[in-house]
Amino acid sequence: MKLLIDAGNTRVKWALTDGAVLCDEGVVTHDFAHELAERWAGLTLEAAWGASVARPTIRDAVEAACPVPVRWMSSERQRGGVTNHYRNIAEQGVDRWMAVLAARARLPGQDVVLASAGTALTVEALTAEGDYLGGLILPGFALMLKSLAAGTAQLDRLAGQWEPFPQATPDALASGALDAMAGAIERLRRRLAEQTGRAPATLVLTGGDAERLLPLLAPPCVIMDNLVIHGLLRVANET
């Protein structure tokens, strides 16, 4: 078996694979990363692949818990039919690259805009020819609300729900954050269509706030879970 590890900004996700499908999956928040050793004890592993954007102490905890050395991935110039046009590959978060590889594998030959709605919102542009053109990074839903709570005197409150014309402050907070996120996604989608001269790209959503965003975005739009893990699966199978 192979172990695939996605060490994100707030959680560590993992999955076991026999090379074809994911056989087992799990997740812990950073506060419980010490439990990984117990959860992975007794596993018979051929190898482990990881993608990390977490702080160094979390990466150290993952390495200490894993029964075999972890092969940590980095963003690359090319893999799996995708050419990465990021100017400085070293500064790109590997989670973004793994998700792009997974989206390409799931939707080959299509223009894709990939939005990962987690702690941060990242939005990526991928052409049907396999050119990854780059993307956006902005605060995710919770971070937007946290910044408003920290920077204003009267907005430290729970968010409500999205409304087309919010008439209560909790709904105004939720609607403002979600509209900002959806607007960024649709603007990049429009720019990609202008770049290619083709119809608007298929939109792929992933991350914890994908369901919140789905009703606010134009079709074609699909949710795909655990794209970083699926990107690692592709790498592991090619290695």
Walk me through this protein's architecture.
- The protein has seven helices and twelve strands.
- It is α/β, with parallel strands linked by helices and 239 residues long.
- It folds into two domains: 2-72, ATPase, nucleotide binding domain (Nucleotidyltransferase, domain 5, 2-Layer Sandwich), CATH 3.30.420; 78-226, 2-Layer Sandwich (Nucleotidyltransferase, domain 5), CATH 3.30.420.40.
- The strands form two sheets. The chain has a seven-stranded mixed beta sheet with strand order 6-7-10-9-8-11-12, with helices on both faces.
- Strand 4 (47-52), helix 2 and strand 5 (70-72) form a beta-alpha-beta unit.
- Helix 3 crosses helix 7 (227-238).
- The longest helix is centred in the last third of the chain and has 28 residues, at 169-196.
